[in-house]
Amino acid sequence: MSQMNQPPNKCQTYLNLGSPLSAISSSPDSTKLIVAGRDIVKIVSVQNNEFKVTSNLRAGKTQSLNYTGNDCCWHPSLVESYRFLIATAATNGAVVIWNTVREGSKSVERIFTDHSRAVNKLAWHPDKLDCILTGSQDNTLRMWDIRDSANASKITFSPKSESIRDVQFNPSQSNQFAAAFDNGTIQLWDIRKPTIAVEKITSHQGLVLTIDWHPEEKNIIASGGRDRAIRVWDFSNGKSLNNVSTISSVSRIKWRPGNKWHIASCSSIVDFQIHIWDVKKPYIPLFSFTDHRDVPTGLIWKSPSSLISCSKDSHLLLNDFQDSYKPYQHIRTSGLTWNVNNEIASINDKINRTQSNESLPSLSTQFPSFFASFNVPTPPPLPPLVKVEQGIMKIYSPKYQNSEIVYNERYLFEHFASNYRFRGQSFNQLCDHNQLVSQVVNQHHISTMWSLLKLHYSNLDQIEQQKEQIEQQKQELQKLINKKSIETQKKQKQQLRHHKNIKEQQFRDIENLEKESNPKKIIKDIGDDDNDSANQEINLNKEEDEEMNSNFDDSQMGDIFDPSNDMMTAKEPPTSSLMEFNANDTGNDQFCNILSAEAVTPLVSLPTTLERQKSDNILDNLGSGVNIKKQNQPINSDNMDSLDKKNNKSTSNENKDSSINQNQQKKNHIKDKINYNNKDNISDDGDDDEEYYNDYDVNNNNRNGNNKENYINYINYNNFTHKNINENKKNDNYDEMKSNDEDSDSLKIMVPCFEFEEFSFQPIITDMLEACIEKGDVQTCVFIVLILGKYVDLNIEKHRLTTWFGSYIELLQRYKMWSLALEIMKYCDDQIISQASKRHTTLISACSTCGKSIPQNSILCEKCNKASSKCSICRLPVKGMWVWCQGCGHGGHLEHMKSWFVDKNQKSCPTGCAHICTPFKK
Amino acid sequence: MISMGMTSKGQNVDGAPAGNSSSEWIISSSSSPFQANKRYSLDPPFGSDYSPPASPQNELDPLSSYFLNLQSEDSDVRKTAIEYIINTLSNPDNERLIKNHLPVIVVLSTESPFDDISEAFTNFLKPIQEKYHIPKQRTTVFTSESQLPPLNTDDELTRKLFQDVFLQHGRVNHLTRILGWHPQYLEKFLLAYNTIMRDPGPLPLHWRNYIGILAAARYKCSYIIALQEHEFLLNNGDARWLQGIDHIPAKLKNLLKVIELLAHQPWLLPKLDIEYLVKGADAWSIAELVHAMVLICTFLSLSGFVFCCGISPECGLSESNNLSSSFSLNDSDCEIEDTAATENTAKVMELLKNRRSQQDDEDEDQSHDRQQDFHNAGDDSNNTTTTTTTTTTSFGNESALSQSSDRMSDFSRYIGNNTMTHTDFDVSSKLYNIFSAQEYSWKEHGYELVSRYFPDAAPLLDEEFSFVYTMTYYKFNNNTDIDTLPFRRAVWYYVQRVKGMLHDDYNYQEVNMFLSRSLKNFVKKAVCFPETIKRDDYSKLGYSLKPDEKCHLSLLAVCSHKQASLLYGLYSVLNYQNRR
């Protein structure tokens, strides 16, 4: 054992006895102490707060182990003949009674050697002055009568348990004593009944090392054990009252006089401090004495504010409350909280609770921290971002650090409307997707809602799978219908092509379709035949078009089917379409992987710096598209090669154009985007732009199939655009207010979700929806209902749902998002809503020259007898998609217009009418 | 190969293409309910060689999945597998297969607790025994096979443990078989062993094996080394490490000194500054160090036990089949009549029976100098004859020398330059102190330290210690209803005395009272230089004891040794911590 001979630094009263100490006991008048150790039994006087060795009982004794002091106990009586008696217990099992009045070798009054192994504890009987009780390692307790020198062992208690670590008489009932055992029990014995214990409490795991009766409360006893706990028990009912967890096995405890529930403890290993606990506040010691350099072994309260302790470091200390270390004053107040926006707020403060600020030395001269000496590794230095500052509350946002972008409401609405998905994927995927959609625009409360939804109902996917099977069957059926539908579709287009409104809607439809269709799923359904599948893919899209635009039922299709109109071919070579499709599929997967890692974070783990970096990365990916682009590079270049070849072979003008266009899209992806951005910067919400987007998108759609990557980039450059726009008009106050509101709302919802295994989340979701509605966010509600409504009864009155849907559709229509509105209508379970699409869908088109209305199913004006919609560039009538300038009314094939305005970089109308169709283009 | 895990891993280690085996793997994994266990298997049997790890079969083996099926609890599955294997092997075309699987078959016929398996394969082997020169399998060279606990024992617990071990590892290894004499201990042993070797803990699995190897190498215990080398490879250990300590990381090398001291002169360990271990680039964390201490002590004591019981090498695991050269294989002379035995036994019986009166006598001459008692207890001679301690030491060295031929030099690669050997603990030495068990006890201090860093292991070790200390059948040879505590205690404390550990509350006179000189000799060898134990030592213990009692005795000795060395190890860790 390390012996430190230098004096302790703070404690004023100390004595170095030169040899490890294992026990102390105080004389009844508190003026003297007996100190015992392996090589030492000494009497020390305590006067004027000073220790002085008065006699050495072992002086002149042999080195016999009998005189080692494993424990010692001064006779508690003040009666003249007994007050000088001392008992010591030895590690070899001997019990020695000393009479301190006598000197030298005469001081030994009695030696009892009946115990075969070490005696751990002594206790004088409080009333029967001649009796002493011992507890030993040899599994027995003995009661001795010191008057009988030959046969002193009067009563032997053999509990048939294990070694006894501690014994103590019950202060309120002198016939009873408690004993602590190696097997984890505390037993209550009656000296009149030596055969069996009165009461038994299993109090600790492993050894019980110490017990202490409460000095005032009857039947209350505290115990400390190897399991590092201090427990308080009521022996009258065997109940545990308190439990204090310490950091090391508890070797001694002592109730503090004058403070009912305070108790001092020390440890047998590792921890050298003496702690004083309030058992009612078990988490942190009230104060600690930190002066010992080895484990303390004995505790005696001299007064409520001073404690005498001895230790293996050979020192006897008088610890004064004044000198103690008060962890409570030094522990930093740290608060940590986490809101729905994935932000962490921390407060880290050193608050001095005592008023006298000056009297305390600075922390650096104090003990650095409560746990410093316990070999707890110091936490690694905090990353610079989380720099700790005193008294300051910090809010760390995991992703957007300080530059949170504020989006205007309209943009958000449009963003959500066009990017949310509610079908075509598994429930979990949908939730993940929608969560991402809301995260991209910093709507963390909404993203949290989605992740919650996923968390609560993640098992829905199984149901989904069953459904999918059914759906697959359905799709097989659809294959059969496809041929019919494509033709119907074409016919329709011919009929409707002249009407501007219709066209706009159509573009929207296609754009929408592109977003909602799930490439993975479709590719599963696609057969081996490339042509077939590609066709099918296109057909599917068209079928949907048809369904939305048409007021014909399936039964009517046959009637309007007209083979003569079947002059259109598939718009692009099927093989290239499929290839593109595959490539995108891969890209999609990669993206999804990143996505899924991110998607679960808000609820599951704390956003550490690492997390933040990760999200930053994702953001980077989103922002530039470069990384994803890189990952896809091989595929893309392959694609391009093959496409190039195709281009060379291609005979069709249109195809060539489109392929070149496509390549450019690929190669100059970023550049393109910048162009778009620029454009967008100029006119925020002009119709021209929207059309332009449509244009771009339709293009994508036609050429690339379901190009998810493009889609994501698309979302993203939207974001970027708006970031630019909004940076100027950022309104911090507003945003804060808003997010505060959101916090409180979502937090309420978040709390109970982990508590029960079997738990209906429906009320929570309903609450959530209500809260959402209250905030005016009908959009999210509608999507949640659309996704969840199939599986879960949300317990919302039907008319309310109808109102929600109605208002959402109305909103969509206000923002001219017709196709989205139609889609919602179509998939809404509510009859009232879904039938709304059947009303007022007859579209009237008129001839551009004479103004006469053109009947459906016809492309010629009856009056002028010519096709009114001629392409301004090729002069041929436009069938299918037609784009026109709303300023001058001229337009033409989508492709031609695009090549005119984009590739040839023109501003004015191709007809030469001198109208500047794209005035903001640079 | 029975063990698919081994096949594929072995190949990986070799860097051989694993194409064939991967397809095999799929087949076997679908058919074996125990595939998950394979990763942990202690000694998935039958690697034909263990160092360097030769990949046993590179070609696709049609039988492997069936061999794996033998490790099934379902008797029907086993039956089908047996039939298939026997049929396949009986086919004259498949002679090559027989050769490949011979070790497996031998093990199955001799080390399976399931009658169906052992019978079938024993019958299969009978006709071809001559042809392939199958050596007679022996579990231990000290006792005849018939005295061992039968594999299909009637004892409920033993059988269950054997079967568990077989289902997990594909064999009941010799060590387990011997411990089957004391099933309750075996149960606790397996629990503790599995925890420190396989459960999540501070050290990676293959490090644990390697530390096992290093510790066993100190006592030149080829049996343990072979087992651990095997498991080391299964745990994806680097095969190069098995070429010796020149190939291991510096961090592991740093531990060599500790292992050396613990094995030979543990009392020097507290003087060793372990700072070099826990500081610097290759630092051990305290948790790792505590785990390592537990491992070292476990394997030191296990090695001792292997020698105590003369456990013979596992079939198919150990290269050294010539081990028999150091032991006579003649069954009949296993039990050499010990002339002193009867007399000594009678004397001890007398002492045990009259223990009470004996103690009273002692009380009177308390004046005995305990220091002297302590010293005397460690003496190899009884009080009367004063042979110097050097005799034993030189004897130990001598025998070590005699055996240090090729077999021993094998393990020098794990020992390196650390050539410390045992010297007797000198009670009055100025270089080191007597370790006081009162100052630092297992129950109060050691336990706490282990539980702090390796919480699962502490209670299991504690249980193992206290169980061994208290285990008794109230028998002494043929005498029943005898409390053998003083005798057992004498062994326990004698071992700790040899290791320099003093218990205040033990009367060291008892050691010489109860233990004969030859027994002390045997026990001392078991815990200090077990490699020198010969069959003579085993059979001439000085008492007429049955083999299972001798096993019990050995257990007492090695467990006491384990506790003592563990205390030294933990004490030095604690000492270091306190210093800071």
From TrEMBL, chain A:
Residues 574-583, 629-640 have a biased composition (Polar residues). Gene3D superfamilies: YVTN repeat-like/Quinoprotein amine dehydrogenase (2.130.10.10). It comes from the Eukaryota. One of its GO terms (molecular function) is zinc ion binding. WD repeats lie at residues 112-154, 157-199, 201-243. InterPro entries: Beta-prop_EIPR1-like, WD40/YVTN_repeat-like_dom_sf, WD40_PAC1, WD40_repeat_CS, WD40_repeat_dom_sf, WD40_rpt, WDR24, WDR59_RTC1-like_RING_Znf. Residues 868-917 form the WDR59/RTC1-like RING zinc finger domain. Residues 10-233 form the EIPR1-like beta-propeller domain. Residues 514-526 have a biased composition (Basic and acidic residues). Keywords: Metal-binding, Repeat, WD repeat, Zinc, Zinc-finger. Residues 695-705 have a biased composition (Low complexity). Residues 683-694 have a biased composition (Acidic residues). GO terms for biological process: positive regulation of macroautophagy; positive regulation of TORC1 signaling. One of its GO terms (cellular component) is cytosol. PANTHER family: GATOR COMPLEX PROTEIN WDR24 (PTHR46200). This is GATOR complex protein WDR24. It comes from Dictyostelium firmibasis.
From TrEMBL, chain B:
Belongs to the sestrin family. GO terms for molecular function: L-leucine binding; oxidoreductase activity, acting on peroxide as acceptor. Residues 1-11, 394-404 have a biased composition (Polar residues). Residues 367-378 have a biased composition (Basic and acidic residues). Keywords: Cytoplasm. This is Sestrin-like protein. The keyword Heme does not apply. It comes from Dictyostelium firmibasis. GO terms for cellular component: cytoplasm; nucleus. The keyword Cytoplasm applies. It comes from the Eukaryota. InterPro entries: AhpD-like (IPR029032), Sestrin (IPR006730). Its main location: cytoplasm. Residues 1-58, 355-404 are annotated as: Disordered. GO terms for biological process: cellular response to L-leucine; cellular response to leucine starvation; negative regulation of TORC1 signaling; positive regulation of macroautophagy; regulation of response to reactive oxygen species. Residues 21-32, 384-393 have a biased composition (Low complexity). It is found in: Cytoplasm.
